[in-house]
Structure formats: C-alpha cells, structure tokens
Amino acid sequence: MKAMLVVFVLLSRSPIFAQDTRGLNFNITGPVVSESGKTDTSLQNEVKELTCPFNLCAALLKEQGATEEKLKATETRLVLLETSLQELMTRLAISEGQIEQLKIVNRDKPKVAFSAAVGGHGYTGPFDTNTTLVYKNVFINIGGAYNRATGIFAAPVKGVYYFSIFYHSGVQYATTLSMYRNGQLAATTHHDKGAGVQENGGVGLTLLLERGEHVYIMLWANTRIWDGVNINTVFTGFLVNEL
Ligand SMILES: *[C@@H]1O[C@H](CO)[C@@H](O)[C@H](O)[C@H]1NC(C)=O
Known about the structure:
Elements: H1 2-13, H2 18-27, H3 41-50, H4 54-108, E1 113-117, E2 122-124, E3 131-132, E4 137-142, E5 146-147, E6 152-154, E7 159-170, E8 175-181, E9 184-191, E10 198-209, E11 214-219, E12 225-227, E13 234-242
Antiparallel strand pairs: 1-4, 1-13, 2-12, 3-11, 5-6, 6-11, 7-10, 7-13, 8-9, 8-11
The structure holds 2-acetamido-2-deoxy-beta-D-glucopyranose.
The site of 2-acetamido-2-deoxy-beta-D-glucopyranose has 6 residues, from loops.
C-alpha cells in the first residue's frame, strides 16, 4: 500500500499526469484488481480505509494546487524564453543583413592599383626639356586610372593614394625624377653626374587627391634613366581609402 501511495503522489506531482491523477483520486474507491486479474480483498480494504480521509484529501489537493502553480510559473518562464529567443533571432537577422550590406559596400568599393615600368632595354633621355616619363610596360592597371599612352594617372575618386617611383641609371648624366600632382612638384629623387658606375633612387608619397587630379613623373631636362629586362625604373600607385 505504501508503494501505491508513493506512486500516486509521484503521479500527482508530474504535470503530465495531473489530469489523470485527478481522475484516479475519485476512482480509487472502486474494486482494486491485482496484476493477476483477481480482486485483492485485503488491498481493497486497505484502500477503502485510506481512500479519502479528509486530511489526506486536503493535503493532496494542496499538493496539486502547488503543482499547478509551478506549472504556471514554468509556462510564464517559457513565454519569456520564447520572447528572448525571438529577439535574438531578430538581432541575428539584422546582423546578417549588416554583413550582406558590408559585402555589397566592399564589392562596390573602387579598386584602383597600377604598376608599370618604362620598358624596353636601355636609356630614356637625355631630352632638352622636362619630359613626362611614360611607363609603357604595364603589370597591372586595376580600375584603368593609369594611362600608358601619356604616363598620367587620373584619380577616379577622392581618396588617399600611395605612389612610389624607383629608378636605375648610369652616372655619365645626372638623373632627376619628380612626381607631379596637377602641375605642382610633389617629390623628387636625384643623383648627380659622377665618376661611379650606376645609381639607384626612389621616393614614395601618400597623397590626398580630389577626383580627377593627375599624378605623373617628370624626367628633368638633360637627365636620363635606364630600364631593362630586370625592371629597374617603375611607377606604382594605389588607392588606400576612398574619402
Ligand atoms: C624642370 O622642372 C623643374 C621643377 O619644376 C624646374 O625647376 C626646371 O627649371 C625645369 N627645367 C626645364 C628645362 O624646364
């Protein structure tokens, strides 16, 4: 009998069986049939004895009330959890949207980079006048901002750009190379005529350019540079950041 009571209490505590337990509470006065199918009179008597003493019923009802309250609390927490989960899903959707947006921004970002050597094999210069050096051997020209026919780079967007030049030359003549920005001298690299054999020089600059501004390299009058298969005299530039 004690075992049955334990089972009964356990069932009444379980939310799943709460309804059935209530039924059991009223049906328990009926004949008790053992597993073998025979009516167990002594057990029946015992059950009758214990069927519904008032204090036991009251205790069980109280127990059930408490269980229902717990269930309600659980339901409330479940609803809160569901709300939190929905909020999280919404935030996740927003983050994914932002990532997509960034991908699009990155995809549509202007990509500008070029690198070119003078080309050929030998000296360019000396000339009587300052001459724009045309770098004809183009390695890359992403965005097409460098014009290989004129040697002039034209900024396709306002932004921060980096440019560098390196040269190689003999010393029977001086070499003076200047980087110009829209007719204004921006940087110069130079060596004098001398008794040595060869010289190398270079300069690099980061410039803030407006859209359409030009950058090009000037070989000064009466100076020269050398370029060959090993690529010695190059002009490089790229957009660091659009502004
Ligand atoms: C070449 O350009 C430099 C710098 O702008 C200038 O000082 C020089 O006089 C120019 N030379 C000639 C021959 O025009």
